[in-house]
Amino acid sequence: MSEIAIRIVEILLAGIFGGGLAFVATILKHKWEKQEKEDMVTAALASLEKNIKNTNKAIESVKNSIMDELAKDRAENEEYRAKQSRARILQFNDELYRGIKHTKESFDDVIAEIDNYEDYCKSHPKFPNFKAVAAIDNIKKVYKKRLEVADFLQ
Prior knowledge:
This protein has three helices and no strands. The protein is mainly alpha-helical and 154 residues long.
């Protein structure tokens, strides 16, 4: 073979070999870039998942704090209502001692208030109930007597 033919074959082989290497390098580069993108997406998803978990923990903490405050407010409100009931019971009893007559509806209302107050006292043993025991007994005694003689204010 002539030198020119050998040189042409060498150039062709070099071109084919070089092109093949370039082709393989391009495929590898594409695969590496794809892997890098996948790694970046995976890292971003992991970071997002961590942020979501932290946010959920923060939300749970705030929710628990709100629930605690709500329970505290509810308990304070129930105690306030019990104290208001006690004040109404004591006032009604004072009116009885002063000879003020009441309608049956007023008695029924205060008896319902007594029932609610006593229920609260039973479910909250630390609540001081001794302040209204005598007044409650007197109201019930007067109510029973008025029922017997039908002596309510008309």
